[in-house]
Specification:
Layout lengths: L6 H18 L3 H7 L4 H9 L17 H15 L1 H20 L2 H12 L4 E4 L15 E5 L2 E12 L6 E7 L8 E7 L5 E6 L10 E12 L10 H37 L4 H29 L5 H26 L9 H9 L9 H13 L2
Parallel strand pairs: 1-4
Antiparallel strand pairs: 2-3, 3-7, 4-5, 6-7
Helix pairs in contact: 1-4, 4-5, 4-7, 4-8, 5-6, 5-7, 7-8, 7-9, 7-10, 8-9, 9-10, 9-11
The protein binds flavin-adenine dinucleotide.
Flavin-adenine dinucleotide binds next to β1, β3 and α11.
Length: 370
């Protein structure tokens, strides 16, 4: 595995780091208190080439590849985890449209997402979380339109996105009956049913959505009819690299708070060894994330690598934030302390884009395949 970064990858990482240190970290507590990340932040990320890192340049993207994306994601999450999840989902949506969209869909949406408008990924439902095969939202043909009816839950910034990639059942039961649609914000019949009151990532909106006979033209279908499950799985593979990188960034922020505490406060060897263990495991997580990112960038199969990276990085990050709190002690758990926010923000990285159990299903299936 090639470990040297190219100058372009280093440049994007450094751009993200500077932006995170100057504009995100100092404001992350305020974003959380206000329960929103201002839209101008995403315009700034767009100008910096961070909202469509791996999207082709002719569609407005940075064409910088998945390794650069992983590095940048870690830096942004180190500054503000809620900004990072919005960046992650929007990058994923842009990549999906670039990969499966027709010319008009790509030309309409990719440049807007690259510039900092948001894109949502509307897959999950009450009975369709780990298993999208349980999906109940339907799309029925009516003349030259599709009519979408159903409800989605846990959709990140579904209320703020210009475009939503929406999965719905077009052709019978099971995962093979799913298709994918592009629904613009403001479509008649599209509503927000609920804002989740979460323990962490409070500056990222997470909403329930209702589709009450939402009509979209026939050409709003993304990819071939019946390809919805395949599109979702491909998108989630890439998304897992992003979440592995996000988890690493959150844990890095907690690690740095603990390290700075120890630099200022002479402590016993137990605390120093704890710090050494966090550093060691975060480095391992970084290597796994970069391995998965590099495989995706080379166009090789990377599902197994993405699941390994996602499971290891998110679980390590959860452990690392807890260890950082142990080093600092009680003040780490007081509202306003960066470790307090990291601990609350990091937990969901073991859930979204596939839970740790789902990652283990993917890994063990691939390992046991004859
Ligand atoms: C903050 C947040 C943001 C989110 N953003 C989005 C978004 O933007 N778009 C979107 O579509 N979704 C989003 N989600 C939903 C997320 O992807 C789902 O919560 C996740 O896929 C798990 O689904 P579930 O909650 O329905 O759990 P379930 O699938 O019901 O699982 C419950 C438990 O059972 C375990 N389990 C399930 N199946 C198996 C099995 N076969 N073997 C062993 N164990 C199993 C799971 O690991 C889990 O521990 C978000 C969730 C959160 C919390």
């Amino acid at each position: 595995m090639q470990l040297d970064l190219s100058p372009a990858q280093e440049r994007l990482r450094d751009t993200a780091r500077q932006l995170a240190e100057a504009e995100l970290a100092p404001n992350a507590a305020r974003f959380e208190a206000e329960e929103r990340v201002p839209t101008e932040v995403f315009r700034r990320l767009g100008e910096a080439g961070l909202m469509a890192v791996a999207t082709p340049a002719e569609l407005g993207g940075s064409a910088a590849g998945t390794v650069a994306y992983s590095l940048a994601m870690t830096e942004i999450a180190r500054g503000c985890a809620a900004t990072a999840v919005t960046m992650a989902v929007t990058n994923m949506v842009g990549e999906v449209i670039a990969a499966f969209g027709d010319e008009a869909q790509r030309a309409t949406w990719c440049p807007r997402l690259a510039a900092g408008e948001l894109g949502a990924f509307a897959l999950s439902e009450v009975d369709a979380g780990s298993d999208p095969g349980g999906m109940r939202t339907v799309a029925i043909e009516d003349g030259d339109e599709w009519v979408l009816t159903g409800t989605k839950q846990w959709i990140s910034h579904g209320d703020l996105s210009s475009v939503l990639v929406v999965w719905a059942r077009t052709d019978g039961a099971g995962a093979r009956g799913l298709s994918c649609f592009l629904v613009p914000q403001g479509a008649m019949g599209l509503g927000v049913s609920k804002h989740e009151d979460k323990m962490g990532l409070r500056a990222s909106h997470t909403v329930g959505l209702t589709f009450d006979g939402v009509r979209v033209p026939k050409d709003a279908m993304l990819g071939p009819r019946g390809a919805g499950f395949r599109i979702a799985m491909m998108a989630l593979d890439g998304g897992r690299v992003g979440i592995a990188s996000q988890a690493l960034g959150i844990a890095t922020a907690a690690y740095e708070a603990a390290r700075d505490f120890l630099r200022a406060t002479p402590a016993d060897q137990v605390a120093q060894f704890r710090l050494a263990d966090i550093r060691t495991r975060l480095d391992a997580a970084r290597l796994l994330a970069l391995r998965a990112a590099a495989a995706k960038e080379r166009g090789e199969p990377f599902s197994r690598e993405a699941s390994i990276a996602k499971a290891f990085s998110s679980e390590t990050a959860w452990w690392a934030c807890n260890e950082a709190a142990e080093i600092v002690g009680d003040t780490a758990l007081v509202s306003g302390h960066p470790i307090d926010r990291c601990l609350r923000d990091v937990r969901v990285t073991m859930i979204y884009e596939g839970t740790s159990e789902v990652q283990r299903i993917v890994i063990s299936r691939m390992e046991l395949r004859a």
